Amino acid sequence: MTAGARRTAARRAGRQAGPAPDVFAPRGGNDQADGPVPLHRLDVPAPHLLPFAIGSFDTIGPLSRAGFPHRHSFHEIVYVTGGTGTHVLDEDRRPLCPPHLCFITPGQVHYWDGVHGLRGWVVLFTDDFLLAHPGDRDALARLGERPWLRPGPDDAARLSGLVGEMLREYGERAPSFTSVLQAQLHILIARALRMSAPHDAPGPAGGPGSGGTGTGRADFVSGRSALVAREFTRLLAQPGSLGRSVRSYADELGVSVGHLTELVKRGTGRTPGRLIRHAQTVEAKRLLSGSDLTVTQVARRVGFGDPAYFCRFFRRETGLSPGDFRRAADGTGGIHHDPGAESIAAPRRPE
């Protein structure tokens, strides 16, 4: 089946899926601008509730097992407990031999090929959900470099117990459930960092220990695009980098601004400018919600010399002024929808 046919079949599957809501959706109105590999966000009726979702492949929806190459604007952790077939991540084909724990970072291209009986759990979240534990962003980047982990029996039992606790917390929504979920996600990431060495991961198809063909796919981003995109995001994550221009990054990487824009867009689905603005917004949220810095000090920390311009920028990106965001984060304001954040599903209550 061609990639175009896979995309058409998956869209039809999403419409015919029955009662299970599909929290994956094409990025609003701009599929063609994202190039040949679709960029998915998470789409639900109440996006202001929580930048996090967890469920089974069935409850998350049919696109959680999409059979066509696509990328996400959010993080995905997949704990596969059953099934056969192949998972393909950035041209690397991994035959399923559960249990597996897989980390997919924003911008990575992946799909499920020829899978049958796929079972397990899917955890979805944006960078906003990591504000309580900002170090988890670096940990996820490291896990994304070696995304497939194969837990042993003891680790698998602990993972199942932890995921079960997260499912209950997400479904019950008791007081302070968001803080509990953030702590549980932090534990999940920390335990993953302790896990097995690279040889425990299933070998790429076509490589040692595999009977696959190892063939690539034309719809995937090139190795050059992925390499430059990873290097750009690494530079962007360095301390003191948020005030830099796209040109300064291009100069450091030895490419033109236009070429950097093209490669990063192909590698992540977003332009360098958009990624810089997103990083500035996330850091500003972290400082506003977790420190006593003034708005002027926050503005300078994220690269703005003019506090008034920073306030206009922050309102454009989030729909809130910095002061309103801080009051909402402190619990002294109402619940607001942040239109700059990705939409993520809330669990459906029984009718």
From TrEMBL:
Pfam families hit by this protein: AraC_binding, HTH_18
PROSITE patterns given in the database record: HTH_ARAC_FAMILY_2
Question: Where is composition skewed (Basic and acidic residues) in this entry?
Answer: 324-340
Where does the HTH araC/xylS-type domain start and stop, copy by copy?
A: 230-328
- By what name is this protein known? AraC family transcriptional regulator
Q: Which organism is it from?
A: Streptomyces paromomycinus (Streptomyces rimosus subsp. paromomycinus)
Keywords on record: DNA-binding, Transcription, Transcription regulation
Specify the taxonomic lineage.
Bacteria, Bacillati, Actinomycetota, Actinomycetes, Kitasatosporales
Q: Name one GO molecular function term.
A: DNA-binding transcription factor activity
Give residue spans, biased composition: Gly residues.
204-215
TM spans, by residue?
Answer: none
PANTHER family membership: ARAC-FAMILY TRANSCRIPTIONAL REGULATOR, TRANSCRIPTIONAL REGULATORY PROTEIN
Q: Among its keywords, does the record have Transcription regulation? A: yes
Region feature Disordered, mapped onto this chain: 1-37, 198-217, 324-351
